[in-house]
Amino acid sequence: MKLDMRAFLRDDLRLRVDFSASDQNRGLAPPRVQKPARETQTVLPLPRDPAQTFTGRMDLVQALGERHSQRKWRDEPLRLEEIGFLLWAVQGVRKIVGPGQAFRTVPSAGCRHSFETYVLANACPDLQPGVYRYLPLDHGLVLERAAGPDFFALQHEAVLQQAFVPKAPLVFVWTTVPYRMEWRYLETAYRVIAMDAGHVCQNLYLAVQAVGCGTCAVGAFHQTALDSFLGVDGEEEFALYLAPVGKV
Ligand SMILES: Cc1cc2nc3c(=O)[nH]c(=O)nc-3n(C[C@H](O)[C@H](O)[C@H](O)COP(=O)(O)O)c2cc1C
Questions:
Q1: Helix segments in 67-129, DSSP class H
Q2: What is the average pLDDT across 118-127?
Q3: How is the chain split among helix, strand and coil, in percent rounded to 5?
Q4: With pLDDT > 90 as the criterion, what percentage of the chain qualifies?
Q5: CATH architecture assignment, domain 3-33+43-247
Q6: How far does CA 222 lie from the centroid of its chain?
Q7: Closest atom of ligand 1 to CA, residue 197
Q8: How far is 43 from 84, CA to CA, in rounded Å?
Q9: Nearest CA to ligand 1 atom 20
Q10: Which residue from 103, 168, 188, 194 has the highest number of Cβ atoms inside 10 Å of its Cβ?
Q11: Residue 137 pLDDT more than 70?
């Protein structure tokens, strides 16, 4: 075991970093809050006011007590309203504070929010099968890539043959854009990116219960296969975590 890897988890790493050299302290503009949609992409708006629509569906204390990982799905579709609610729960914007900063439904170190959220629509009647990306500022989805004939086989490979993933009607995949965190935190960015990911997935675990669904955190996958499946470069943006969702 390489004990020096533990340094990554320790906050005294901060004492060895010269923060005056950060891009923030050198006066560079903050990175964008979300990756913009391409000009050729049309934003599919998600139903408005997800918080109001789903308020009162599930008692929070009950949701905390009953949370567990699910890997079997009932053959029942998720509606766009439910998908929009789940996306809002994991990354929805509460308040735009200024350029490069927006408060969301999850906390993030320094409000840097390094994640992009993708959904793989495997079997959702309101969505053509394919890879979509959530735009938190718009509360909408863009289609990144329509599913081709090898969509399920490639997805199965990318998640190391964990068959419950491509069998789910919808799969959340979070990538990180590390520069959003490095801009302020330099080498200490990675520790807080990992911390941030936990909040996002836990919100999904709790929120799915309000819509009769289940999920399972998945940290094991083939990095380059999943990055190429999503269409991200694997350097400036790469997959970090995923979670299939289905009715249970
Ligand atoms: C960071 C992380 C990574 C995980 N990766 C996987 C995975 O790759 N495959 C899987 O089947 N479950 C995975 N799990 C789910 C755990 O196996 C599960 O949370 C654990 O067994 C406890 O069960 P519970 O969630 O029902 O309490 C992961 C969970 C976490 C938090």
A1: 80-91
A2: 98
A3: 35, 20, 40
A4: 93
A5: 3-Layer(aba) Sandwich (3.40)
A6: 17
A7: 1
A8: 13
A9: 69
A10: 168
A11: yes
CA-to-CA distance for 147 and 42, rounded, in angstroms? 17
Question: What mean pLDDT is predicted for residues 14-41?
Answer: 96
Q: What is the pLDDT of residues 138-175, one digit of tens each?
A: 999 999 999 999 999 999 999 999 999 999 999 999 99
Domain limits, the chain: 3-33+43-247
Q: Is the pLDDT of residue 1 over 70?
A: no
Is 56 a residue whose pLDDT tops 90? no
Q: Which residues pair with 117 in a beta bridge?
A: 174
* DSSP conformation class of 127: B
Q: Which ligand 1 atom minimizes the distance to the CA of 68?
A: 26
User: For residue 171, which amino acid is it?
Assistant: V
Supply the mean pLDDT for the chain: 96
Give the residue, out of 69, 204, 241, with the most ligand 1 atoms within 8 A of its beta carbon, to mutate for a pocket test: 69
Confirm if 216 and 208 have CB atoms less than 8 A apart. no
Q: Which two tokens stand for residue 206?
A: 């709790």
What is d(CA 163, CA 86) in angstroms, rounded to the nearest whole number?
22
CA distances, 50 to each of 44, 188, 197 (Å): 15, 35, 22
How does pLDDT run across 69-99, given as a tens digit for each residue? 999 999 999 999 999 999 999 999 999 988 8
